[in-house]
Amino acid sequence: MSRVRVLVGTRKGAFVLSSDGKRERWEVSGPHFAGWEIYHLKGSPADPNRLFASQTSGWFGQIIQRSDDGGKTWTQPGTPPGERTTPEGQPKAESNKFVYDTSAETGKPLTTHQFYDGTQHPWEFKRVWHLEPSLNDPDTVYAGVEDAALFRSNDGGKNWKELSGLRGHGTGPKWQPGAGGMCLHTIVLDPTNPKRIYVAISAAGAFRSDDEGETWKPINRGLKSQYIPSPEAEVGHCVHRIAMHRSKPGLLFMQKHWDVMRSDNAGELWQEVSGNLPTDFGFVIDVHANEPETVYVVPIKSDSEHYPPDGKLRVYRSRTGGNEWEALTKGLPQKDCYVNVLRDAMAVDSLDKCGVYFGTTGGQVYASADAGDNWTPIVRDLPAVLSVEVQTLP
Amino acid sequence: MIRVVLPPHLKGLAHVSGEVQVEVAGPITQRSVVDALEASYPMLCGTIRDHITKQRRPFLRFFACEEDLSHESIDAPLPDEVVSGKEPLLIVGAIAGG
């Protein structure tokens, strides 16, 4: 029978939640990296026992951790040759070096972006928001970082190199931070075209590369954002999340700061599909594993509050690719609920009856084993959840 | 040997429970001690000082012998008690946050 493994990043550590395919009884492992913020952890599709985690701290900076046994043990990649262990016998390792490209060939124009006050500000590395392992190579993994940039490692997370064509394509000086910082938080790899990569940045917008990350272009046509004077603005949009279905990689769904959007042509043009949602603000968006037109969002009240409308935690599902949405409430709190669901905190498994999972800033991780009809908390009292990923295992 | 006390998060990262001891060649300074520390525990690279600039991270402080040495030159000699091993160099995380 298949199994599922839910990878949860929180403000105070990582947790691994495991179940068989029934998804009724769960084992909880953790906290791993206790006390550290775990912005994201994700497994390699090419080797499901290989997991990558972004461990970060305002005090101590950025660490990348890797597990090669499904999360039982972790090490920082990069043991220097010939020096196997520390004096205490632990593997030597070093993996937290993210340095922006300042080379004469490709890095020279990449010096500043727009700051909150409108002045130009130097790029400063803060943390890794999102790790996206390659679909085919367990040693290749992408990292989306704050201040916004894309890095890639081809050696299992030991060394990282910036794909500086993104910051350098021309609009970089116009990018500016959103309330959460200027972060590259979404990386989507096209399973049918290994050269195609999508990323999203708050608050710059969505971008696409068709040559494995060497060159990039903004794909924000059709997006409309308050307070941006030009409706045709090439960048400046606060995209919160992009989701794609493996069987229809040209079809993208987006949760923008305001508006739920879809594109049927790989981001060339977006159209709004917010329809009857109670509010079209939110962070997460995901697509059913087996139905490419079935989409999930969690509407959140904004701009000031950032909690569910009316104190009711509701996932909304559209089976028509947007516009027509139904509230999914069974098993979710329908009164006095004031948690948020952050942008990386929803995922789906790929079992026949698709499982849907999301985590809240209140520390709950909810699961539905029937595509959202019914929900049960796997755990109720974790630290604030920053990210949720799911692996479907044989 | 120079004794160093790490903050709890970095003890976890280095997989140590108590003090660590490092052998330092030449003058005993903040720079040479952190150099030796990073050589023995490369997983700490970037966590105490910046990879490139070698500047101390903003929320970390260096203490020894009940003195805050954080604003001393990183190449100034550390106190004799640290050099002799009588006292440890304390690397302390700022007490702030949740």
Describe what this molecule looks like in 3D:
The complex is a heterodimer of chains A (394) and B (98). Helix content of chain A is 0%, strand content 40%. Chain A has no helices and 29 strands. The mean pLDDT of chain B is 93. Chain B is α+β, with helices and mostly antiparallel strands. Chain B has a 5-stranded mixed β-sheet. Chain B has a single domain (2-93), classed as Beta-grasp domain (Ubiquitin-like (UB roll)), CATH 3.10.20. Chain A binds chain B through residues 33-36, 57-63, 76, 78, 80, 86-88, 90, 92-97, 99, and chain B through 7-10, 12-16, 20-21, 40-43, 45-48, 51-52, 57, 59-60, 93-94, 97.
Tell me roughly what share of residues is in helical segments of chain B.
10-25%
Quick one: overall form of chain A? globular
CATH topology of the domain at 36-77 and 93-237 in chain A: Methylamine Dehydrogenase, Chain H
Tell me, rounded to a whole number, the average pLDDT of chain A: 94
CATH architecture of chain B: Roll
CATH architecture field of the domain at 36-77 and 93-237 in chain A: 7 Propeller
Number of domains of chain B: 1
Question: Which descriptor suits the 3D outline of chain B?
Answer: globular
Low-confidence parts of chain A lasting 5 or more residues at pLDDT below 50? none
- Poorly predicted sequence stretches spanning 5 or more consecutive residues of chain B: none
Q: Which strand order does the major sheet of chain A show?
A: 3-2-1-29
Structural class assignment of chain A: mainly beta
- End-to-end Cα distance of chain A, whole Å, is 7 Å
Q: Determine the CATH superfamily of chain B.
A: Beta-grasp domain
Quaternary form:
heterodimer
First-to-last CA distance of chain B: 35 Å
Helix-strand pattern of chain B: EHEHEEHE
Main sheet strand line-up of chain B: 2-1-5-3-4
Supply Rg of chain B: 12 Å
Q: CATH superfamily membership of the domain at 36-77 and 93-237 in chain A, which one?
A: YVTN repeat-like/Quinoprotein amine dehydrogenase
Largest interface: A-B, 25 and 27 residues
